[in-house]
Every structure is written in structure tokens, then in C-alpha cells.
Amino acid sequence: MPSTQLNFGTSQRLRSLCRLLLRAEKRSWEVPGGWKAYSQANKPDPKKQAGRMSHLKNRAEKQKRQRERMESIEARLVAGQKNELPRQSKTLTLKNAVLYDIPTVAGEKKDTSGPLPASYSPRFIEAAWYAWWVKEGFFKPEYQNQLPHQKPDVFSLPIPPPNITGSLHLGHALTVAIEDALVRWKRMEGCQVLWVPGSDHAGIATQAVVERKIWKERGALRQDLTREEFLQEVWNWKEEKGNDILQQLKVMGASLDWDRACFTMDSDFFQAVTEAFVQLHEEGLIYRDRQLVNWSCALRSAISDIEVENRQLEGRTELSVPGVQDKVLFGVLVTFAYKVEGAEGEELPVATTRPETMLGDVAVAVHPDDLRYVHLHGKRLQHPFTGQLLPIITDSSVERDVGTGAVKITPAHSHVDYELGRRHGLPVVSVIAEDGTMTPECGEWLQW
């Protein structure tokens, strides 16, 4: 192998390392038996002593060879530095790629009469073939009619539609490679094969990407644009990234039927989905109702359960909230009291980690067997801000040992409260708007 000159810094570090190792080896040689001295108080039997002496002798010889090797390395390093030349920067030279330079009209068959390159060159081998395959219709299910060994079997699958949020990655390439091998194998077996290409709108993810794009380019928010203007930005993004994805699939040689390429938000699919939902509703298989959703005030959109990270807080915890510069404190149990209607000076204390939702309280629940509150069953409480009268209800799901044992019920802002409210027929009052501000239901005193 060709020798390599070491620069000054590397030589210095290697010599220092060699000296440290030599000093360590020297200390081990000076101690009988290596790194650990054997106690003279213990007197082993002659057989064990003979075996140990043989072991120590072998170790001493090994250490001697190691010392000589390290001294030799240091000597070579010192000699190498004396003759060391000034450090020269290396420049990597890439091997010239062999290209297919025979003029070929797009879709025409490649000229294979010439000699192949001496070594494998992907750009030479792959050039011009794909366009010819597509033109000949090899990837279409109708091509089966030209096969002498055709079978009645049908093999059809859609490509898992990649999101139009960006370009394909290694995971997409692996999936496409496996599926391409399957469909080509089925074609060779004589099956009628259809492999459908397409891409997915990935609504929320794409919206976030487009919002960042227009902010970077224009310094504008989505709210600064009309609905039509923002939708046009999304479609422009789809045309750009969607076409990039399809071109990547073609470069990989995926044998897809491009005449059937589709997008999940194409008008035909949109109408088909709408028709399907209408039919299911008319048949009573699905229904429309008011339910709690995971709402993002930043995106102004509902979020799927699988996209939400639930965290159980053990106590005071500061968390980052979108749109807020400083961290927000969570996990603090706050206690306040509602006045009991018709009972002068009597109050019912409740504990909560979300005091801001008390403006949407519609009831207070206690455990039916909690003796502290038996005398309040069926009575009502006065809300200090909205003036509403809140019923005191009993429910066995209330934990008597948590907080005060009395729980405020806000069905519009808690999944637990929502289920409890449904059991007792309580109204759902939303006091937090889509943008995170408080709604008029909180009272005029809170409106700007």
C-alpha cells in the first residue's frame, strides 16, 4: 500500500499516545505478576504455583514484545517527522461516468449493437429504456393480451401514495422496489397486472409546509390570504412536489401504469367519497353528531388521535405552547369555591388543573357516598362570572380522595367530562374559540 505522510499535529498525538502506553507497560513490568501483585501471605500449593509461574513468564514475554513494538512505532514516527513535507490538500477525483450518447428519439428503442462499457455504468445501461417500455405499453394490464402464456388471474394493487409534503426517501424506495419486483414477477407468470401510481394530499402536514413556504417567501400568514388564494398556493405546491415524486418513481424504473395516475383530492375521488358518505348516512350506517376533537389552534384544524402526544404530568411542569414565547405552567392543582344557592355563607370548593375552563362549567359532581356533601345533593351553585346556576350531581366515577372530592364538569373541554355530561344530559358549552381566544359565552366582561 502507498505510504501516507502524517501532518505535525497527528504525529505529535501519536507519539504522546505511544509514550503513555510505554510508561503504563513499564509500571506493569516493575510489579511482579503484572498489574496486580500477588500477596505473599497466601502460600499456594506447588502445582498451582508452577502453573502461575508459567503464566507469568508468558505474560512477561508478551509484554516485552509489546514494548519493543511500541518503541519501534515511536522511532518511525520521529524519523517520519524529520522528513515530513508541508501538508498538501487532497482533491478527490471522481471516475468519469460513461454516458449513452447515441441520439435516440424519446420512446424509440435503444441501439444495443455497440460495445458495452468496460465497467458497469448505470447512466449508460439505463438510458432510453424506460421511455420505450412506457410507449410499448408493457406496464398496462391490457398488455397481457399479447402474452402467449396469459392466465385468467388478475393482480392489482395501488402504490402506497406518498405525501406531497416533499420528495421520496429511502423508505419509499424500499417499498417501490419490493412492489415492482412483485408486479414484474406476476407479469412473467401471465397474470393481468395493474399497478396504480398516485400521491396523497396529507392535508394537515401539507398545510403546515405551505404555510411555512409563504411565510418564508412573503412574510405572510395563512390568515392574510383569502381561502381561494391559499388553496391556489396548495395546488401550486402539489403540482411542483407531486410531479417531482412521479419523476423520482420513473427514475427508479417503477413499472406503473401512468395513464391511471391519481391524486387523493382529484375531483373524481372527491365526488366518489362524497357519494359514499351520503349513501352510508341514508342507510343509517353512519351518523353526524357533536363530538370532542383534538383541535390545533395554530393549524385551525382537527388532529387525529395518532398525531397527539398525551403526557401524564406528576406535578408542576412548564411546557412550550405554539404561539407563546415563554413556557406555560401546567400540572398545578388550583382550588376555588362556588357559593351554594340559598345558603348564606356556604360554599363548595372544587379543585382543577385547568381553571380557565371554569367559565364553561355546567355542573359540579360529587361521589354519592361522600358524607361531606350528602346534604348538598340536588342543590345548585352560583357561577360568579356568568351568573348561571350549576346543579350538584352525584356520580360514582368521582374520586373522593383527589383534590376536594368535588369535580367541576366542563363537557366541551374534557373527554372525561364529556362522557360524564352525556350520562347526565348536561349541555355542552364551548368557551375557547378556534384561535384559542375566549368566546362570548364567557360573558361580556371578558370580551375585548
Condensed summary:
With 448 residues, the protein is α/β, with parallel strands linked by helices. The protein has helices at residues 8-30, 46-82, 122-126, 129-136, 170-189, 203-218, 227-251, 267-282, 415-424, and strands spanning 154-158, 192-196, 198-199, 262-263, 294-296, 301-303, 317-319, 328-330, 334-340, 347-352, 363-366, 380-382, 389-394, 406-409. The termini are far apart.
What does this structure look like?
There is one protein chain. This protein has 448 residues and is of the alpha/beta class. The chain has 9 helices and 14 strands. It has a 6-stranded mixed beta sheet, with helices on one face. The protein has a two-stranded parallel ribbon with strand order 1-2. Strands 3-4 form a two-stranded parallel sheet. Strand 1, helix 5 and strand 2 form a beta-alpha-beta unit. Helix 1 packs antiparallel against helix 2. The termini are far apart. The N terminus is likely disordered.
